[in-house]
Amino acid sequence: MRTAIVVGAGIGGVTAAVALRRCGWRVTVLERAPELGEVGAGISVWPSAVAVLEGLGVKGVEKASVRAKPAGMRKPDGRWVVGAAELGVEIPVMIHRAQLHDLITAEFGNPAAESGGVTVCTGYEVVDVQQDRDGVVVNGELRADLLVAADGVRSVIRQGLYPDYQGPRYSGVSAFRGIADVAVDDGGGETWGRGQLFGFARLIDGRFYWYGTANQPPGTTGEPTAFTSWHEPIPQLISATETVLQNDIYDLTLPLVPFVQGRIVLLGDAAHAMTPYLGRGACSAIEDAGALARHLESTPDLTAALTAYDAERRPATTKLVKRSRSIGRLSQTENKLLCTLRDGVFRIGGKLMSLRART
Question: What is the pTM of this model?
Answer without folding.
Answer: 0.93
